[in-house]
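Q: Joint fold for the lines below.
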Amino acid sequence: GLRLAVVTNQSGLARGLFTAAQLRAVNARVEELLGPFDSWQICPHDERAGCGCRKPAPGMVRAAARALGTTADRCVLVGDIGADMTAAGAAGAAAVLVPTATTRPAEVAAAPCVRADLSAAVEEILARAALVAAPTEGRRAGTVLVARSDSAGDVLVTGPAIRAVAASADRVVLLHGPRGRDAAALLPGVDEHIEWPLPWIDGNPTP
Ligand SMILES: [Zn+2]
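A: Joint structure:
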């Protein structure tokens, strides 16, 4: 399954609206109803503290990713306000908005992805995870065209991606430009090379 973390602003702590013990009791109940969670990230500060953890700052999203043993760009944050979406974006994570009574229409309009409820958000996340999952045994692609039509360094750094494609394809055809020719020749996993100057890379446009 997927690893789960909670990232939550709890400025009520700083403002004295509730005690740390009360917060722990609420979190324990949330854990009981929705968990177990692999990590809890809680910002106890109020807005004026200017901390790096309070959403929309990305601190808690990054910390949660670290606690889960991954990076934020491999995480999806589900939230109900714009600050959640902003925090996710600032950390490099994907985000799904599930509107509640407190969500403003502008926040819904600006969200990268909106789902009606938590189960629909989970479905969306699982569907995306399936798209990037390693291909299962026996499902091989035929011939795959990889296009990397710029300089030698750019072609070289594509090497690991080409090997990943080659692992599940019958044949890999690499399209490269003249400036990537020497680097392309070094890459393993390529069955055929097509050299093609693209006008926006190798062209010589008049000013
Ligand atoms: Zn904070």
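Q: Anything notable?
A: The longest strand covers residues 141-148. The chain has nine helices and seven strands.
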